[in-house]
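Supplementary notes for students who missed Thursday's class. We covered one full example, reproduced here. Read the sequence, then the structure, then the short commentary at the end.
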Amino acid sequence: MRLKLLSVLALLAPLAVPAAASAGDAAQLEILGFSQDGGIFAFEEYGIQDGSGFPYANRYYIDTATDTFAKGTPIRVRIDDEAATLATARDQARQQGEVIVKQSELATNHGFTAGFNPVTELSADPLRIVVNPRPVFPAIDPPLEFRLEVLPMVEAENCHGLGEASGFRLLRVDGTAGGQTQVLHEDKSVPQSRGCPTGYSIGAVQTFTKDALERYAVLIAVRRIGFEGPDYRWIAVTGKP
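Structure (token representation):
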């Protein structure tokens, strides 16, 4: 009887071992802040690239009036050496960014993180966020509401037959005007810099206020096909009331 039991346990043992999971590269997000006048919004994404093991750090400086990259950006640093440290990559990116906006200026005008949902969040709505623009209670500002719509696209060149690429549309819902919506961004095609994006989620809302709300930035996590699993990168859409 004991031998039979041992035989059964031996057969079941492989089933008890969890299957090996492939892990992609989820870039860390660092919100850097705004320029003194709110005209530039900056953030950083960084991590260890899956597959290669190379450290990288990318900095994005966005003109909040036009929602376009500031001249000379984005800044992308990747050190093609597995022995290199992530701190070294980040420091190189920071030094390059000093000529765009000083790190000290961004830190002084960091703004307020009115909403934040990391890519590991499972309970929040990934396609909708409503926030009070600043920590004043009771609120004296109208709420900011954003909605994200994922758009199917024709297969992008970077997908290499692995699936269909997705774009997105970002809407702002005006709670003071009967729920009217404003299109802040709508993809007509998928930029090559996104790789092969398969999904999107709202990750954060950063606001810049003085006497009133002056600028905002919506951070969007981009899920894309990676080497060892799904990768996550960050983009931002900026605007003003």
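Commentary. Residues 1-20 have pLDDT under 50 and may be disordered. The helical segments are 2-16, 86-97, 103-108. If anything here is unclear, bring it to office hours.
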